[in-house]
């Protein structure tokens, strides 16, 4: 199991809308995430900055599985309206580099 940290940024003024959209995740997206090996996905917000922690079997395999999945394509289209930089799932994103952990 991998634990991946991510950071994204909201467009100014879209904070409430982002939280409203995330209040109910579409069932088909939930199923796609789980089928792609996601065990949990948590998001924290500090102003416009979003911090994600994803627990997933294989992060790169998850991204490949979701890249063209209809539920994720629709979700990413919606997120692109709210985020300062959209994620098109085309790169080799590996998340943030961990520098310390309390053992």
Describe the protein's topology.
Blueprint: E1 2-9, H1 15-22, H2 27-35, E2 38-46, E3 49-56, H3 59-67, H4 70-80
Antiparallel strand pairs: 1-3, 2-3
In short:
The chain is α+β, with helices and mostly antiparallel strands and 103 residues long. The chain has helices at residues 15-22, 27-35, 59-67, 70-80, and strands at residues 2-9, 38-46, 49-56. Strand 2 and strand 3 form a beta hairpin.
CATH class: Alpha Beta
Helix count from the secondary structure assignment:
4
How far apart the termini lie comes to 17 Å
| Mean pLDDT over all positions | 95
- Please give the domain count: 1
Named at the architecture level, the CATH assignment is 2-Layer Sandwich
> What fraction, in percent, of the residue positions are helical?
25-40%
The SSE string, one letter per element, is: EHHEEHH
Inertia-based shape: globular
SS class: alpha+beta
List keywords for this structure.
103 residues, racemase and epimerase activity, acting on carbohydrates and derivatives, L-rhamnose mutarotase, Dimeric_a/b-barrel, Rham/fucose_mutarotase, 3 strands, three-stranded antiparallel sheet, 36% helix, Alpha-Beta Plaits, globular, alpha+beta
Can you describe this structure?
It is globular, with a radius of gyration of 14 Å. The longest helix has 11 residues, at 70-80. The protein has helices at residues 15-22, 27-35, 59-67, 70-80, and strands at residues 2-9, 38-46, 49-56. The protein has one domain (2-81): 2-Layer Sandwich (Alpha-Beta Plaits). The protein has 103 residues and is α+β, with helices and mostly antiparallel strands. Helices cover 36% and strands 24% of the residues. It has four helices and three strands. The protein has a three-stranded antiparallel sheet. The two termini are 17 Å apart.
């Amino acid at each position: 199991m991998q634990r991946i940290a991510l950071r994204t940024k909201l467009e100014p003024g879209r904070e409430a809308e982002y939280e409203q959209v995330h209040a109910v995740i579409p069932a088909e997206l939930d199923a796609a995430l789980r089928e792609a090996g996601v065990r949990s996905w948590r998001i924290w917000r500090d102003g416009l900055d979003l911090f994600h922690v994803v627990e997933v079997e294989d992060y790169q395999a998850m991204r490949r599985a979701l890249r063209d999945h209809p539920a994720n394509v629709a979700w990413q289209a919606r997120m692109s309206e709210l985020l300062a930089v959209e994620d098109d799932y085309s790169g080799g994103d590996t998340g943030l580099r961990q520098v310390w952990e309390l053992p």
